[in-house]
Amino acid sequence: MSPPNDTAAIRRPALVCLPTYNEKDNLGPIVEAILAATPEVDVLVIDDNSPDGTGRLADEIAAREPRVKVLHRAGKQGLGKAYLAGFEWALASGYDFILEMDADFSHDPKRLPAMLEAARDADLVLGSRNIPGGGTVNWSLARKLISRGGSLYARTILGIPVRDLTGGFKCFRRAVLESIDLPTVECSGYAFQIELTYRAIRKGFRVKEIPIVFVDRRVGQSKMSRRIVFEALRKVWSIRASGFH
After folding, report:
1. How far is 124 from 234, CA to CA, in rounded Å?
2. Tens digit of each residue's pLDDT (9 = 90 or more) over 61-76
3. What is the per-residue DSSP string for 112-166?
4. Is the CA virtual torsion 176, 14, 45, 218 positive or negative?
5. Residue 201 CA: distances (Å) to CA of 77, 123, 172, 191
């Protein structure tokens, strides 16, 4: 996928991929917070034709802020597909570090500098809720148990030491994404996060977890459900069977 109005040969430091679907109320504040936290980072809004006008707002922001780019997609095809489209765009645009995060302030933009600092000696940095210093805010006990139990289950089945396998706050060196045949990524949603981390580890890349505090979304309705989590856990077995050498 070719980046619009860009020259792929130009190297750029870092890009935050920000998938959106009906995030009009959050978009302006989250983009502003990202740009303020990390002067060296650009933002790519990946909008799945949001009915609430998020895509139009993204275009308006990009028109006045050159560090903001917009990738429009025809419709809602799942979080994993949105990230894959963003990753391909980022690689074609020459970014050295590609980050992913939620658009609803569940992931604190103030942690972006720490993610990039950790990437100095790691190939994939994971924002982790399950290591000392990490945690969650506004989560019920049941949701905490599902999340922690899911990560324990997945890392046990896959035989890898990562404490938070389902988190979506990550920083990739471009070499990691280049080594993964992105069109062959099978999973979406939470299983997508598990698959990418597993593939990176299987290819010998250095993975590092840093603590984050995950805060339940400020505005709008959460897209997470128990069904989505349990579906991801079922897919762990197909990820293991694939091997991804």
Report:
1. 24
2. 999 999 999 999 999 9
3. HHHHHHHGGG-SEEEEESSSTT-EEES--HHHHHHHHHHHHHHHHHHT---S-SS
4. positive
5. 27, 10, 12, 15
CATH number of domain containing 193: 3.90.550.10
**Residue 169 and residue 126 in contact, taking contact as beta carbons nearer than 8 Å:** yes
Which residue type is seen at 164?
D
Its pTM stands at 0.89
Query: What's the rounded Cα separation, in Å, for the pair 77 and 80?
Result: 8
Q: How far apart are CA 75 and CA 21, in angstroms?
A: 9
CA–CA separation, 127 and 171 (whole Å): 9
Q: Which helix (H) or strand (E) segment is 36 a member of?
A: helix 24-37
Is position 170 within any domain?
A: yes
Integer Cα distance of 11 and 155 in angstroms: 35
pLDDT digits (tens, 9 = 90+) for 97-154: 999 999 999 999 999 999 999 999 999 999 999 999 999 998 888 888 888 888 888 9
Domain encompassing residue 132? 12-240
Task: Specify the number of domains making up the chain.
Answer: 1
Query: Rg (Cα) of the chain, in Å, rounded?
Result: 17
Q: Is residue 6 part of a domain?
A: no
